C-alpha cells in the first residue's frame, strides 16, 4: 500500500513538472516573439522606411533648381504660391537644422497622412490644411518612433529655431514659436488659426504633430506633441540658401 502511495506522489510530481516545464517553455517562446517584434518594429521598419524615403528624395532632387552654396537674400513679402500635388506625391523636403548630427534632419514631405505615407520616413501634409507658404496653417505629421523615427527629436526644437520646407524652386523658412501637448481629439491645433477654428488667418504658419512619449510610442498614442512655427522669409533656390543649411552636406 505504501508503495502505491509513493508511486502516486511521484506520478503527481512528474505531472506538475511537465506542466511547469511546458509553461516555462511557452513563456520563453512568448518572450522571444515579443523581442523579435520589438526588433522588427524599432529597427527593421526604420531601415525599410529610410530606403523608401531615399527613393523620394533622389527623385525629387533631380527636379530641383540648382542652389548655389552661398547665403541667399531673404524675402519677406508674399511667397510664391505652391501648386498642390496628388496623394502620396512629393511636396518638397522638410529640413530641421537643429536636428543636424542628432537625428534625421532632412526628409521628404508627402501629400497625405495615411500610414502608407508616414511609414516612408516622411512628413505627411494634412490635406485639409493650407499649402506651404499659404496664409493659414501648413500642418504636417510624422512618426516619433518606428518607420524612420521622423520626428524623434521634436522635443529639441526651441523658440527661434528654423524649420524649412524646400520645394523644387523655393526655400520657405518658418521659425518655431512654441509647443503644446494635447489629446488626440484636439484637432483644432491644425486649424488655419490653431486653437480657434472659426477665426480667419492673418499669418502663415507651420504645425508639426507627432506622438508625445518616446516610451509609449506607437503603442500608447495617449497624447500628441505639437510644435508651431510662423513664416519668416522665403528665398529662390537659384539665388542661394538659408544660412542655417549652408554647412549641411545632406541638404541639396
TrEMBL record:
- MF (Gene Ontology): hydrolase activity
Q: Which SUPFAM superfamilies match?
A: Sortase (SSF63817)
Query: What InterPro entries is this protein classified in?
Result: Sortase, Sortase_Class_E, Sortase_dom-sf, Sortase_E
According to the UniProt entry, the coiled-coil residues are none
Which spans are transmembrane here? Answer: 20-44
Keywords, ordered alphabetically: Hydrolase, Membrane, Transmembrane, Transmembrane helix
Per the UniProt record, one Pfam family is Sortase
The UniProt entry, under CDD domains, shows:
Sortase_E
Name the record gives this protein: Sortase (Surface protein transpeptidase)
Q: Where is the active site?
A: 143 (proton donor/acceptor), 211 (acyl-thioester intermediate)
Amino acid at each position: 500500500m505504501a508503495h502505491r502511495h509513493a508511486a502516486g506522489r511521484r506520478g503527481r510530481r512528474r505531472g506538475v513538472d511537465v506542466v511547469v516545464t511546458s509553461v516555462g517553455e511557452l513563456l520563453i517562446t512568448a518572450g522571444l516573439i515579443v523581442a523579435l517584434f520589438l526588433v522588427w518594429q524599432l529597427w527593421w521598419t526604420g531601415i525599410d522606411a529610410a530606403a523608401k524615403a531615399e527613393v523620394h528624395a533622389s527623385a525629387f532632387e533631380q527636379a530641383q533648381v540648382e542652389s548655389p552654396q552661398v547665403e541667399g537674400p531673404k524675402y519677406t513679402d508674399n511667397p510664391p504660391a505652391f501648386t498642390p500635388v496628388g496623394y502620396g506625391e512629393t511636396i518638397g523636403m522638410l529640413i530641421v537644422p537643429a536636428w543636424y548630427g542628432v537625428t534625421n534632419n532632412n526628409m521628404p514631405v508627402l501629400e497625405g497622412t495615411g500610414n502608407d505615407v508616414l511609414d516612408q520616413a516622411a512628413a505627411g501634409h494634412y490635406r485639409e490644411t493650407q499649402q506651404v507658404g499659404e496664409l493659414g496653417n501648413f500642418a504636417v505629421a510624422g512618426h516619433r518612433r518606428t518607420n524612420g523615427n521622423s520626428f524623434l527629436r521634436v522635443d529639441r526644437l526651441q523658440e527661434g529655431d528654423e524649420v524649412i520646407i524646400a520645394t523644387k524652386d523655393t526655400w520657405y523658412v518658418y521659425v518655431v514659436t512654441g509647443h503644446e501637448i494635447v489629446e488626440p481629439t484636439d484637432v483644432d491645433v491644425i486649424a488655419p488659426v490653431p486653437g480657434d477654428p472659426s477665426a480667419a488667418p492673418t499669418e502663415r504658419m507651420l504645425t508639426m504633430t507627432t506622438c508625445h512619449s518616446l516610451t509609449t510610442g506607437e503603442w500608447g498614442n495617449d497624447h500628441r506633441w505639437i510644435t508651431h512655427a510662423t513664416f519668416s522669409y522665403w528665398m529662390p533656390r537659384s539665388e542661394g540658401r538659408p544660412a542655417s543649411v549652408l554647412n549641411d552636406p545632406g541638404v541639396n
